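User: Hi! I have a protein structure encoded as tokens and I'd like to know what sequence might fold into it. I'm fairly new to this, so please keep things simple.
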């Protein structure tokens, strides 16, 4: 699998590379003033990316082994040791973790493939002129942070304060409430090529690394992983 597909942050990043120029063609381009960075951030799916909709409507890749899905399969209860609910502490933790993965904290970041920019890699369509700025990267830090905070508050409310579902929703909304699918790759057909979409769990692990949620992820996923039958 090509390196440029493996080096993704969110699904929109992967699709941006899939829809862009080839690695060989990009290598021949003059050096960019901004580093190559992940694509859109909080607020996915990106309304101005047709490929995202095509993937979101596609069926997941059939699994290769039996799964045990909890009777009430939405999200697992969160341990009390980590911030939950819709607290400012939780919003801040998730905001900083997503920012690290999406742009490395560069508020002026500009993706060379799509219109995504800023610390949270909003596309122009998703940014929507927030705060009077045409692109996220033109907005000062406190404006970009305010937009991310607003979106995270809404997402946490939607998923009852579950940080893992919020992160999964950031990459692939269709699977946000289906953690039993997070360990499986999916596939997107582009012309004559089939592109492998890495498992959602890979992205979730990247985001929670170094946060209080990191040590809780395995226990969270244990409720959804297949169990051996006696």
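Assistant: Happy to help. Inverse folding works backwards from shape to sequence: for each of the 230 positions I chose a residue that suits the local structure. Here it is:
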């Amino acid at each position: 699998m090509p390196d440029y597909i493996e080096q993704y942050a969110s699904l929109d990043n992967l699709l941006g590379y899939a829809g862009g120029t080839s690695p060989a063609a990009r290598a021949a381009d003059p050096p960019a003033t901004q580093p190559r960075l992940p694509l859109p951030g909080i607020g996915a799916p990106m309304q101005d990316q047709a490929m995202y909709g095509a993937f979101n409507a596609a069926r997941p890749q059939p699994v290769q082994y039996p799964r045990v899905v909890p009777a009430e399969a939405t999200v697992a209860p969160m341990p009390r040791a980590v911030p939950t609910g819709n607290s400012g502490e939780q919003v801040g933790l998730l905001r900083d973790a997503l920012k690290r993965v999406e742009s490395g904290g560069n508020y002026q970041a500009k993706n060379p493939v799509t219109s995504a920019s800023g610390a949270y890699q909003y596309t122009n369509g998703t940014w929507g002129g927030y705060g009077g700025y045409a692109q996220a990267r033109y907005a000062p830090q406190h404006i970009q942070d305010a937009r991310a905070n607003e979106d995270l508050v809404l997402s946490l409310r939607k998923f009852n304060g579950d940080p893992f579902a919020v992160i999964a929703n950031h990459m692939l909304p269709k699977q946000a409430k289906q953690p039993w699918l997070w360990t499986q790759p999916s596939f997107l057909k582009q012309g004559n090529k089939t592109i492998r979409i890495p498992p959602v769990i890979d992205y979730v692990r990247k985001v929670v690394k170094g946060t209080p949620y990191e040590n809780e992820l395995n226990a969270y996923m244990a409720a959804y992983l297949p169990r051996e039958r006696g």
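A useful reference point when you look it over: The chain has a mean pLDDT of 73. Feel free to ask if any position seems puzzling.
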